[in-house]
């Protein structure tokens, strides 16, 4: 399966495209993604937290427990385990969009980050870092997919490197799907 215009399909955390899906009703518009990357790629906006049924606005969630296997719970009361839903959604997207040529994740998100989300213990003390749970499940299901943290795209060299990886991956997608 190819995109209608045969451009590479790149998944993006929806808040980076200006969609007001964050816990506080805001967004994190990224001009380079929207105004430059979109000229050569088809962007697929995804917000795992709203996709699993959380509202906007909502109580923010964070990661707790063992950094190797953290749980996503509400910050305010430690309740509501969202881990299974976020991980299932990551596997679902990986299966649904085998044609993906890349993914840009929001940094430090308990759902979307690929490296640096803080993990806390039961009294709020930081005990380490983890990937966001949606991102972890998706990356595990699609280990060859080029992925990047939006903060890395501040560097022009990293942008070029990501674009090269997307376009190198894209022909494989056209052949395989
Ligand atoms: S879950 Fe991901 S896409 Fe949704 S608001 Fe949080 S960082 Fe953005």
Characterize the structure shown.
- The protein is an alpha/beta fold and 177 residues long.
- 30% of the residues lie in helices and 20% in strands.
- It has one domain.
- The chain is built from five helices and eight strands; from the N terminus they run βαβαββαβββαβα.
- The strands form two sheets. The chain has a four-stranded parallel beta sheet. Strands 4-3-6-7 form a four-stranded mixed beta sheet, with no helix packed on it.
- Iron/sulfur cluster (SF4) binds next to helix 2.
Give the ligands present. iron/sulfur cluster
Write down the overall mean pLDDT. 94
Strand residues, percent: 15-25%
Structural class: alpha/beta
Biggest sheet strand order reads 2-1-5-8
Order of H and E elements: EHEHEEHEEEHEH
Shape: globular
Radius of gyration: 16 Å
Largest sheet: 4 strands, parallel
Distance between the termini: 5 Å
Number of domains: 1
| Low-confidence runs of at least 5 consecutive residues | none
The total of helices stands at 5
Count the E strands.
Answer: 8
Summarize the amount of helix as a percent range.
Answer: 25-40%
Break the fold down into its secondary structure elements and pairings.
Blueprint: E1 9-13, H1 31-35, E2 42-46, H2 48-51, E3 61-64, E4 71-74, H3 83-96, E5 100-105, E6 117-120, E7 126-130, H4 133-141, E8 147-149, H5 156-176
Parallel strand pairs: 1-2, 1-5, 3-6, 5-8
Antiparallel strand pairs: 3-4, 6-7
Helix pairs in contact: 3-4
Bound molecules: iron/sulfur cluster.
Iron/sulfur cluster is lined by residues 13-15, 21-22, 47-49, 106, 109, 111-112.
């Amino acid at each position: 399966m190819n995109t209608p215009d045969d451009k590479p399909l790149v998944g993006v955390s929806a808040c980076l495209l200006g969609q007001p899906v964050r816990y506080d009703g805001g967004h994190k518009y990224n001009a380079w993604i929207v105004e430059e990357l979109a000229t050569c790629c088809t962007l697929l906006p995804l917000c795992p937290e709203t996709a699993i049924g959380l509202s906007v606005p909502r109580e923010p969630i964070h990661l707790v427990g063992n950094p190797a296997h953290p749980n996503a719970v509400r910050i305010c009361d430690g309740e509501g385990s969202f881990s299974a839903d976020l991980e299932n959604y990551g596997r679902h997207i990986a299966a649904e969009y085998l044609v993906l040529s890349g993914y840009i994740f929001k940094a430090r998100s308990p759902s979307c980050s690929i490296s640096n989300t803080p993990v806390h213990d039961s009294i709020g003390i930081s005990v380490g870092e983890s990937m966001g749970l949606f991102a972890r499940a998706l990356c595990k299901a699609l280990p060859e997919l080029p992925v990047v943290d939006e903060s890395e795209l501040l560097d022009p060299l990293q942008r070029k490197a990501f674009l090269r990886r997307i376009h190198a991956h894209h022909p494989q997608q056209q052949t395989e799907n």
